[in-house]
Each structure stands twice: as C-alpha cells, then as structure tokens.
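Checklist before submission:
- one chain only
- standard amino acids only
- sequence pasted in full

Submission:
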Amino acid sequence: MPSRKDQKEYGTRTNDLRAGFTLFEVVIAIALSSIIVLGIGKFSNSISSVGVLINNELQADHDIQLAFRDIVSEIRSMESSAVGAYPLETATTSSIIFYSDIDADGVPERVRYTMTTSTFQKGVVKAAGNPVTYSTSTEVVSTVAPSIIKSSSTFDYFNSSYTSTEAPLASPVSISTVRVVRVNLIAEVSTSTAPRPLMLSNTITIRNLRSN
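Returned file contents:
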C-alpha cells in the first residue's frame, strides 16, 4: 500500500495534469472563438455587400422603369404647342421632339428625347415671353438612363394603318403621317459580375392624332 507521502505526491501530479489540460482547453476555446468571430464578421460583410448590390440593381431598374413610364405618357398626350406648332417636331430613329403638357400647368412644353453614344437624355423647354416662344437656349437637360446600347435602342414610327405587323416608316419620316410611336430601349444595369441588359419596349398611339 502506498504511503501517505506517495499518495500526496501522486495527488499533486494528478492536479498538475488536470490544471495543464484545463489551460490547453482554454487556449483551444479562445482560438476557436476567434476563428468563429472572424468568420461571422466576414460572412456579415459579404451579406451586407450582396444586399447593397441587390438594392442598387433594384433601384436602377426602378429608375429606368419610372422614366420609361413618363416617356409613354408624354408621347401619348402630345399636342399642339402654345404657338400652334404641330405636336410632333422631329422624328428620327435616335431622337424625337414633340410638345406635351408634362407638368400639367395647361401650357405644353417642348420635349426632346435623344439617344446619345451611351446615355438616354431628356431636354425640356418651357414656353415663355410675350409673345410666347420656345427658346432652346433655356432647355433643361437630364439623363434618363446613364448606360444604353445605342445600336439597339430606337424610336420607330408608324402611320394610321398600323396593326403591329408592319415595318416602321422609312427615314426620313414624314411627321404628318405619324400616328404611332414605338420606343425600344436597352439599358445596362451594373451588377457584381457584369452589366445586365434591361430591355424595354412600348408601342404608343398618339391620342390627339387618332383618326378614329
């Protein structure tokens, strides 16, 4: 039978081993905790970045859709200018100029939509003066879509015989024959990988020029 001295020494060694093992566990626990915290931090940052990208894409989509809705409404309601000019002034594949009361103040504005090299722009001239005139030097220009594919974005025009199967009127278009306008817009929305095309098209009958 071990003596009391031997038993005391054995108990001391056992306690030392237990203390050493507990310290090892603490070190491992701290290391694992650090790894988990770092992992959660990186995951949270990734989720946040993805959320920002998705939000930006949705916002871009919304802005372009809203602008396109305005185009449709404005072309549909075009009318004679405040000085009696014909509702449609210019009709080309990359630009359209017309008169429409876009701010509902009872006086039509001169509205110009143009597809430039990489942007879709809108210019507005308000009638002013006595006698009333439309001074293009006062035109206020804004960007409707910042990134468009000009080669694929066009304005097409049709006469009163339009049934959806005809080819657009040939250029140069005789503005007095135009009764229907089709807007084809392909914009690029930036994503986390590459630009994504957003294709919009709408065929608009000019309400005030309808013959029936």
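Reviewer check: Helices lie at 4-76.
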